[in-house]
UniProtKB/TrEMBL annotation:
Pfam families, alphabetized: ATP_bind_3 (PF01171), TilS_C (PF11734)
HAMAP family per the UniProt record, alphabetical: tRNA_Ile_lys_synt (MF_01161)
Enzyme class: ligase
Domain topic, free-text comment: The N-terminal region contains the highly conserved SGGXDS motif, predicted to be a P-loop motif involved in ATP binding.
Reaction equations catalysed: cytidine(34) in tRNA(Ile2) + L-lysine + ATP = lysidine(34) in tRNA(Ile2) + AMP + diphosphate + H(+)
Gene3D superfamilies, A to Z: 3.30.465.60, HUPs (3.40.50.620)
Record-given protein name: tRNA(Ile)-lysidine synthase
Residue stretches making up the Lysidine-tRNA(Ile) synthetase C-terminal domain: 384-456
Biological-process GO terms, alphabetical: tRNA modification
GO molecular function, one term: ATP binding
Keyword Cell inner membrane: no
Protein's cellular compartments: Cytoplasm
Family of this protein: Belongs to the tRNA(Ile)-lysidine synthase family.
Amino acid sequence: MDRIIHTFISKHQLLEPNDKVLVAVSGGPDSIALLHFLCSLRKTMPLKIIALSVDHGLRGQESMEDLDFVENICNKWDVEFVGTSVDVNSYKEESGKGTQEAARTLRYFFFEKMMNTYQADKLAMGHHGDDQAETIMMQLVRSARPEAVHGIPVKRPFANGEIIRPLLGVSKAQIASYLATHHIEARIDPTNEETDYTRNAFRRHVLPFMKEQNPKFHQHMQAWSERVRDERVYIREQAQEVLKTVHFSSNVEKFVQFSNRSFKTFPLALQRTAFHLILNYLYMKQNEDISYLHEEMFMNLLSDEKPNATLDFPQGLKVTRAYDEITLSFHAAQEPEAFSYTFQPGEEANLPDGSLVIAEWTEECESAGRYVHLCDSHHVKLPLVVRTRKDGDRMRLKGMRGSKKVKDIFIDQKVPARLRDTWPIVTDQTGEILWVVGLKKGGVLIDLSSGPWLRLQYKNKADT
């Protein structure tokens, strides 16, 4: 086992000479074996080792005895010891978390504090190869998303240093043999034999069968985990090209927008990866409620023939498609309020979003443009009205016989559904629609040889 661990540490560059290493020690076989191995490593590599032990207060006197046991071992092996007790049951009530999650949270609070106190380089943990195999199998059962199946990392950033797991290359049986060879005793937690917790059930019923099929199953799972992580790093790097086409808001209320057409030019694997990176941004990586079903819903939305659609994701996130525009936002859409303002030439109408519609007489028939409309004054009944749309709205278009539904104009112009109910429409006193601002101009064809003309101009809030 020594050779396997030495090779594993070297391969993954887990330790450097003169590292200050905190070791999480529960008193169980795995953590005691890890502590003993690191102590023996001091003979060939200068290391500063501090053992950390946490009593979770869940097994009364027995868990207190675990703490005393670890302290005695540390005294025997010349290792500095720091122990603490935490109240898991009280924290469960405060936080609403389950027993295992609450215990883990408090344990890591203590570890982080000690990393900062000692300015340590590494926090070593005793997870082994069988733990890795169990974790991967549990993740496969729970999720079909590749991003959610990755196993236990060999190392990862933590506090001011790293968490390292030197024993991931060896099995629980090898650890037991190591302890027997060195005549080392360890404490056994009786809750490890209970099957109330999912991991224990996998440990007792699933892993033994897999080991029967392949005694090196734990090695295969570790190799698989390393390969998957390497490939995923590469895919995430490539997905950054997708994210360059995405707008991430810098406002307090987070939202993301992108062009569906541009997004879909990338390979499907990168689309999926970018989708999960976007969710990491929006959920601040707290997206455990997202399943492969949400991913499928999102991908179907991109390919849907309907130009307007909305998906509801966990925690109030809405994914909206409006023609080519895709928006992901937690901001609850407010019901649009209808408006109607009367105004005369020489006046301006202030719209709710801060935009303006200005009316004035003019003798010049200059080129109009998209946001300027010249009307034949002889066919306009004052005062003017700027309002939101109404059911059944129709308008006569210049150069066309008959009329057209405003609803169809919005569809033809690919106006997002969320904007249609607040789009400004200018009419005269009789209700004749003169202008669907920025989209279509109505009214009788102007005789440019006579005047004056009524000039309508729209200025959005960025221009005012």
